[in-house]
Amino acid sequence: MSSLSRTEIGSTECKEATSIVRKKLHDSAYGSKSKDALKEWSKVSSSNLIAESSGFIPFRTNILKEWNIVDDDDDDDDDDDIHTDTVAAANDREGVKILVRFPSSLLPAELEENGTILEYSGCLEVDFDKIDLRTFAPDVPMLIQFHAGAMIMGGCHDSWLIDEATRLVQNAPKQNTPSDLITVSVEYGLAPENPFPIGIMDGLSVIDYLLNDNDTTNTTTTTNARKAVHISGISAGANVSLVTGLESFRRFPGKILSIHAQSPFLNPAGDTMSYYMNKNVSPSTQFLRWSWQAYLGLEQQTQKQTPSDDDSNSDNGIDNDNDNETQLEKVLRKDSNYSSWNKWKADHPSKAIQRLVNPALDVPDGLNIMSCNDDETKNAAPKIILRYNMGDPLMDDGKDIVDALKTANANASYYKEMGLHCKQAYNADAPNENWKIWSEAVFGG
């Protein structure tokens, strides 16, 4: 990844390096780690076998306008150019690929008995057109998952997502045994080929398909038995889970029951204290900043050696032109995306667009509404579980969204943990509290 972040975005070298990194992750995702994780899930499910189906959900090219994020009437708005450019870039998209997994016992008997076992995963293969996710097992919780990868790599076979399902089932309230779960892992578009906001639009398209009572394939009204979903994500996927989860709360109040975000990737500037203090751990700050540049089209910075604490201003190459900056700000902003991110925001002043990058910039009202009667259930806020790590360059990204949610009095639980990026020790006999809280939100406590 360090070699990738030294390339010029869009160059042949960049494309080659990106391909190599993605292939390594792809091979890893199809390896024994994921297969073993699926076996663990099957052990705690209502079936000894997990079923698997993959296919495409229609990509909604106008979803930003349909959801009133982009103004349909203001053709001169710079923010609308994002939508126009995105539609042009997405014209050849087949759709949004998703990977669906669940205990095979949820299937009709003929599908469970006649399916074949996939060698790479050990799962029972199910044809995608054999199940309608809007009506399939509607009483079973559905978890929409977004994988990690800094917006430029990763995929829906991420083994961390399988681990999430297993741990949720393990920690389900005892009265809910057996605790079945349907997971929908989204293969959202990756930069630089699919820049912002295509990945977000992918996530919104999937949620719209699952929750909208209008059949978007033929514009007729249909009975949609899938009344609610849960959303989760890890790292870059935590960005997508928070963005799509909060936008979905605005669009479908009461239908997003929980949002889980682990080590969220939120701040394009990359100029925080945690970036500086944890610059020598993985993922590297250089790679994280480069990924934001690839995703948002930010101006690439010239990479320089970060100054040591003993260096003076005259020797360390810090730009002293801005007298309004403190010495600390100068140190933190050196080699960061601070200037290019501020320019991006100035070019796209709409808070609605900016929150699609970093939801901490504009959280919705009503996140404190909890369901306690029939009138409030339709507007109930999701339970939000936010986890972030002290040894992570993204620690302050997590802290910023925590502060924003606290200001909104959100129905949320926060966990600041030891360890590196996305790392948390897990003991099934003594699980961390966050798993119990999240599992109660998913299965009902």
Write the layout of secondary structure elements.
Layout: H1 12-29, H2 32-44, E1 50-57, H3 63-66, H4 78-89, E2 96-103, H5 109-114, E3 124-125, E4 142-146, H6 159-170, E5 182-187, H7 198-211, E6 214-215, E7 220-221, E8 229-234, H8 236-251, E9 256-262, H9 273-277, H10 285-296, H11 327-333, H12 338-347, H13 351-354, H14 374-377, E10 383-389, H15 395-407, E11 412-417, H16 433-443
Parallel strand pairs: 1-3, 4-5, 4-8, 8-9, 9-10, 10-11
Antiparallel strand pairs: 1-2, 2-5, 6-7
Helix pairs in contact: 2-6, 7-8
Estimate nothing, just give the exact number of structural domains.
1
Give helix and strand order, one letter per element, not per position: HHEHHEHEEHEHEEEHEHHHHHHEHEH
**Largest β-sheet summary:** 9 strands, mixed
Using the CA coordinates, give the radius of gyration: 22 Å
Please name the CATH architecture: 3-Layer(aba) Sandwich
Mean pLDDT: 88
Q: In one word, what is the shape?
A: globular
Category from helices, strands and their pairing: alpha/beta
Continuous helix count: 16
Fourth-tier CATH superfamily name: Alpha/Beta hydrolase fold, catalytic domain
